[in-house]
């Protein structure tokens, strides 16, 4: 009897166990799954991504081959790089802050690349433009093909060439100037004193390169040599000789060779200067007190200094075609508005320099600064070459 009870109870226990398991399975299905939390940094990034609006993906870049190993991109509508072109061209502050300059035209870009300037981005309208430029330099840059109409809208040239390059701001210590320029370099330097007109400065740099100047120094107050108008007027002179810009007058002597003599360009002939210096103050400039005389140089700088007793050194004065080229020599060209600064005159006096006068017809105030620079530089070159020729002739004379 007891055995029969045990046999009957076993199925009951099995069914009870199955019912319990079934209830636990139902409860397990009703439970929510365990949430796995990411690290704190990833949670913060995910929350920030949800709060900020999603940016549309950048447009696909279409790349094409311009030759073996040379690829270029086709600019998509709304390419932000195109907007920087105008900013670099117009803003000196932007150029200085980002260390970039903009060059336009095949000739200027080619001169820059051959001199070792670093090309970052080149915008061009036709693939044929690339064939005239050094291929090795193009491979290291970003090439972007744009429509000619867009380049024309950025350019301020009358006839754009469809070629614009953005370069790293050149460093004159790392440039490779043409061998022909270096072989004809003379111990003749040029200092620009407050030249503010872009066309004049570009023409001055071009004359300095043509005369064979060793280098050009630009003091503070001069226009930025990397402005587009200066670059166009310079016609590649920036990449033919060193141009040191934005110099304080205190640092100018350290950039000049030892034993150099500094001469300044003048626009008053010696007779007129002596007459003005000896004339009564009442016969001089308007607003002067009568009964006293004063050197002409002091009269020139009295207004800007605002003092009656300005200390202006007296420099020997001579015409530009008289002998003054004793190497090495630096010529200072003053600005169109204020002329020579007192610092330039003091520097000339400390080196035994002179005032070089270019006589003009009475009634003509002065020459354009670029014209004056060209006259003095090529006259200095003529005098130096003549002196070398005379020395060579003396060395070849037979000994009696």
From TrEMBL:
Region of interest (Disordered), residue spans: 33-68, 274-300
One GO BP annotation of this record: methylation
GO cellular component, as recorded: cytoplasm
Biased composition (Low complexity): 274-291
Stretches that traverse the bilayer: none
Recorded family membership: Belongs to the class IV-like SAM-binding methyltransferase superfamily. RNA methyltransferase TrmH family.
Protein name, per record: MRM3 methyltransferase
Taxonomic source organism: Caloenas nicobarica
């Amino acid at each position: 009897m007891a055995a029969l009870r045990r046999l009957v109870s076993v199925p009951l226990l099995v069914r009870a166990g199955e019912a319990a398991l079934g209830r636990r399975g139902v409860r397990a299905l009703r439970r929510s799954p365990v949430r796995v939390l990411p690290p704190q940094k990833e949670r913060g990034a995910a929350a920030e991504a949800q709060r900020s609006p999603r940016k549309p993906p950048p447009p696909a870049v279409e790349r094409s081959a311009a030759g073996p190993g040379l690829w270029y991109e086709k600019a998509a509508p709304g390419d932000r790089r195109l907007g920087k072109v105008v900013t670099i061209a117009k803003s000196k502050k932007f150029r200085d802050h980002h260390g970039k300059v903009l060059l336009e035209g095949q000739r200027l870009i080619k001169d820059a690349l051959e001199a070792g300037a670093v090309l970052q981005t080149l915008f061009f309208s036709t693939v044929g433009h690339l064939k005239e430029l050094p291929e090795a330099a193009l491979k290291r840059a970003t090439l972007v093909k744009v429509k000619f109409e867009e380049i024309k809208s950025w350019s301020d040239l009358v006839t754009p060439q469809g070629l614009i390059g953005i370069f790293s701001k050149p460093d004159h210590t790392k440039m490779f100037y043409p061998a022909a320029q270096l072989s004809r370099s003379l111990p003749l330097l040029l200092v620009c004193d407050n030249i503010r007109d872009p066309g004049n400065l570009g023409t001055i740099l071009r004359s300095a390169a043509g005369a064979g100047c060793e280098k050009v120094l630009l003091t503070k107050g001069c226009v930025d040599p990397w402005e587009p108008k200066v670059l166009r007027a310079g016609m590649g002179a920036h990449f033919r000789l060193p141009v040191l810009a934005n110099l304080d007058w205190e640092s100018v002597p350290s950039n000049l060779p030892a034993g150099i003599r500094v001469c300044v360009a003048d626009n008053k002939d010696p007779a007129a200067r002596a007459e003005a210096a000896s004339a009564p103050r009442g016969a001089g400039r308007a607003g002067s007190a009568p009964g006293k005389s004063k050197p002409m140089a002091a009269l020139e700088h009295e207004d800007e200094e605002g003092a009656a007793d300005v200390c202006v050194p007296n420099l020997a004065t001579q015409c530009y075609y008289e002998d003054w080229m004793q190497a090495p020599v630096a010529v200072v060209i003053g600005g169109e508005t204020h002329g020579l600064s007192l610092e330039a005159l003091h520097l000339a006096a400390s080196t035994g320099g002179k005032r070089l006068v270019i006589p003009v017809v009475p009634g003509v105030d002065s020459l354009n600064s670029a014209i004056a620079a060209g006259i003095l530089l090529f006259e200095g070159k003529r005098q130096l070459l003549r002196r070398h020729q005379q020395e060579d002739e003396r060395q070849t004379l037979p000994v009696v």
